[in-house]
Structure formats: C-alpha cells, structure tokens
Amino acid sequence: MSRRAFAWAALSTLATAQGAAAAPGRPDPGRSRRRAATEMRGVWLATVANRDWPSRAGLTPAEQRAELIAHLDHAARDRLNTVILQVRPTADALWASPYEPWTEYLTGTQGQDPGWDPLGTAVREAHARGLELHAWFNPYRIANHADPARLADGHPARRHPDWVVPYGGKLYYNPGLPEVRAFVRRAMLDAVARYPVDAVHFDDYFYPYPVAGQTFDDDAAYDRYGGDFSGRAAWRRDNIDQLVKEMAAGIQQVRPGTRFGISPFGVWRNATTDSRGSDTRAGVQTYDDLHADTRTWVRNHWIDYIVPQLYWHIGFAAADYATLVAWWAQVAEGTKTHLYIGEALYRAGAQGQPSAWRDPVELSRHLTLAATRPQVRGHVFFAAKDVAADPIGAMARVVADHYGQPAKPPR
Length: 411
Description:
Blueprint: E1 40-45, H1 61-77, E2 82-88, H2 104-107, H3 118-128, E3 132-137, E4 141-143, H4 156-159, E5 164-167, E6 170-173, H5 178-194, E7 199-202, H6 219-225, H7 232-254, E8 259-262, H8 286-290, H9 294-299, E9 305-306, H10 321-332, E10 338-343, H11 362-370, E11 376-381, H12 384-389, H13 394-402
Parallel strand pairs: 1-2, 1-11, 2-3, 3-7, 7-8, 8-9, 9-10, 10-11
Antiparallel strand pairs: 4-6, 5-6
C-alpha cells in the first residue's frame, strides 16, 4: 500500500493538524554517508491505471519494453537494489496466466495478448543489472469500476458472480469465501512457479478502505463461516491471516527460498484504541478497518519482511514519522521479520503538500533518523515515476547523502 493516487483516500481521514517539524540535523554535505553493506533500497513500479508504467496503454511492445528498461536503468544508476513490480493490479496479469486475463494497462483491452513477456523480461533485465525483482500482487481487487460487464469474457469474476462484492464504486473478491482465497492464491503462485522472482509482495489492500455510508456486504459468507468467532471483525481478520499464512507456505512449496513481504498502511492501531498501538491519531487503523493484523504477522514471522507506509513528515501531529519509526522498530525487535520503511517520494514537491514536503532534504532526514534504529534495514520509495522525475531533487539528495556506495538487499 493511500500512498498512491489510486490508494490513499485514507490519508484524508487523518487529523489535519500539523506539528512543528523536529528534524534531526542534515547529513554533512561534504561527504556521502556510507550505509550498511546490506540494506533494502527499493522502489515500487506501479502499473495500475498506468501510474508508473507503461506510461499509457496501447504502446507497442518495443515502446513498453524501452520504458521498462529505462526504469530499471534509473534504479541501478541511483544505486537502488530492488524493484517491486506490480504484476497483478486488478485480478489480471502481466504474464500469460491460465487463471486470469492479461491486464488492460498494457494494451488498453483486458485479455488482449500484448505480444511479449513483460514479467519474464522484467525479471531477466533486473537481474542483469544486479537488481532484485519482487512481484507485487493485489489479492482481492477486481476492478476500479463497478460494472462486471466491462470485465473480459471468461473473467473469473464473471463466471463466479457470487465471489464478487461491489463496494465504493469498485469490485472486490470476497475474502470470507474459502474458494476465493484458494483461487487468488493459485493465481498468484502461478507467476512464482513460472518466473524466478526474488520475492512476493502485497500492498495495503486486504478488506477495502472504509467508504462513508457504505457496507461491505459479506453477510452470507459470515452467516456460513463466522460462527466460531467473537464477531465479524475477528472473522475478517482470521480470513486475512489465513491468506497470509497459506500464501507463505505456498511460496516455499513452489519456489523455496523466495521471500514474502507486505507493505501495509503505516498505523496498526492508535494507542487510544490499544495500549500496544502507536502514539498517533490516524483515521484508519489496519487492524480495525482493513482487518489486517500486521503486528501479529511480524511478531509471529509469518512474513519475511514488512514495509509500513510511513508517508508523513517528521513532526506531523496525527502520525509523526519519527514516532512511527520507533514504534515499528519496537515491533520488529527480536523477530526474524525484516523491517523496511515505505517512503513517500511522490509527496516531495507535490502541489498542496505541507511545507515539509517542499524541502528537498525531508526524505534524507528520514533516512538519517531511521538509521538510529538498528531494526530498520532499509527503505522503499513510492514510486518509480517520481524517482525518474525527482522534481525538487529529493531523491538525488537521498542518493548523495546515503547511497554513496552500492549495497545488497538483506536476505
């Protein structure tokens, strides 16, 4: 996971009060900060709605490939080491899947063969540049519209309308149905079986972000499967827990050694809700609203890494970056789950952002602060288009201050 034009409606529900920035001192400008020999230096490469790549649907295969290579080259030049490519944005595929149609974001028509192998090319070309390629899947989102008739002929959601829940003007698979969970797991693992991806990656979408005045209609599934739980929320959390555990096991069965990471919304629970939570006033809490118990996943080592999306500046009153780095470091301490921090590069210099994001040094300060916490083993930047454009030089400053030498991703 939101961080994205297509994801973070949840941010608007945060308290709008701004705290005074309390940034640590900027790094010595006379030298490059040498970081650990192994740390995550990642970038998300989003395909949904053509956010990062391809720049638009309908480009020729050669044009699509050239744009993809340019993103990989840019990541390598910035001494990043990992590209997280969105390969299943909306119950579709960037490979020749036997389960789901080709994504519309390649050709403009869902189900149309683009005439080349995007995922295979991405893995091969990333590895040729010393980059890891993590395959990013969205488990339950079917479409960013609410019309099943617009889906490709033969789409699983059209064959199984009972699997589908319309909500907030979009279509979702129902996580409460065991047959849905089994299907989406098979569909995602097909890519892992076919390609030597270095990791499987989920973002922040499990149950959808709340939409005011609307109800996610899973009554029938709850009536059928929820009897052993204390309430609907506990049942929903168990549904997501089961997906996470079953996906982890499936990955190791299909391609042993492949890692599994998740990037959730940055607030598990506020401390006012749960004493174990963070000192924040977030309007969305993953445990309660998305039914994703991210803290448990880390503490029980159900996943290999977690990348909480800490898309706020240092000193933001409702969700202070510094406060949340400290909280997540405490959660990860003593576990085998690696902690990386999701960084909002897309906000740097963007119109309408708080003044902190107009300072090209803000993101570099994030890395300086996080380096004081040994549990933080790297950062991932949203997103590739912003790495390339870098309108105020925020990414260039990160590279100059922190990425003076190459680093391998943690294993």
